[in-house]
Amino acid sequence: MDLFRFRRGTSPLLVSVPHAGTYLPPELRARLTGTALELPDTDWHVDRLYDFLDDLGASVLVATHSRYVIDLNRPPDNANLYPGQDTTGLVPIDTVARAEVYLPGEVPGEGEVAARRAQYWQPYHDRLERELERIRAAHGYALLWDAHSIPSEVPRFFPGRLPDLNVGTNGGASCGAAMEAVVSAVAERASGYTAVLNGRFKGGYITRHYGRPAERTHAIQLELSQRTYMNEPPPFEFREELAAKVRPTLRTMLETYLRAAAGSA
């Protein structure tokens, strides 16, 4: 199984989908609990939801392996991105709902974590960085969109129901101010959906690490509530009638991102 799927586009936009993977190597599958084998923390169907990316000329990088193998949106040193707040790790040992991921005695040690980081984490980031460099060389700037989804209620991290459209720019540090303003405005105006800018989810490692406006690389994360396009309980079915309603907003956000960047170049 390849570690990721990649297709190269023609525009300055690269869309990263680090949590849509569902593949578990057989030797790891045998060590996981029944709850973990349902893969509840997957960003289900996100690559399918963004089915319009070729129309925008976007390059697309989609992970194939489950985040239970390794979380591609965590720092390689496993530092907490939200100091003082709860979070899951580089190699998660519990689910977002606090269920155990591993059977007794099967939790990976430091050596295994380091090996997974080299085998799974590093190649994704190497490709991500190379593609951003290529785009920047070709267009003078690069735009990264980190596409995620999450259950609408996550008591571990947030009381009540999450907003539908959670835009993250690391407090404005990961992209130009004009881009942040217009993209978040699209989300806030979206009829039938709620939105927030830099709320509980300000952007993970990918947004924070690669978003370097001073170097003309901009990054925005969208954490989309899964209630907007799928059934949240297992078996996590995709719902095309819901997806058809939210897709125009997603597309407008990305088109606005592209236009704002071109206007600022």
Describe the structure.
This protein is an alpha/beta fold and 265 residues long. It has one domain (4-264): Zn-dependent exopeptidases (Aminopeptidase, 3-Layer(aba) Sandwich), CATH 3.40.630.40. Helices cover 32% and strands 15% of the residues. The protein has helices at 26-29, 34-37, 46-49, 110-139, 177-189, 205-210, 240-264, and strands spanning 4-7, 13-17, 59-63, 142-150, 165-168, 195-197, 217-225. A seven-stranded mixed β-sheet has the order 1-3-2-4-7-5-6. Helix 5 (177-189) runs antiparallel to helix 7 (240-264). The chain is globular. It starts with a strand and ends with a helix. The mean pLDDT is 97.
Kindly list the characteristics that best describe this protein.
265 residues; alpha/beta; Aminopeptidase; seven-stranded mixed beta sheet; 7 helices; 32% helix
Give the arrangement of secondary structure elements.
Layout: E1 4-7, E2 13-17, H1 26-29, H2 34-37, H3 46-49, E3 59-63, H4 110-139, E4 142-150, E5 165-168, H5 177-189, E6 195-197, H6 205-210, E7 217-225, H7 240-264
Parallel strand pairs: 2-3, 2-4, 4-7, 5-6
Antiparallel strand pairs: 1-3, 5-7
Helix pairs in contact: 5-7
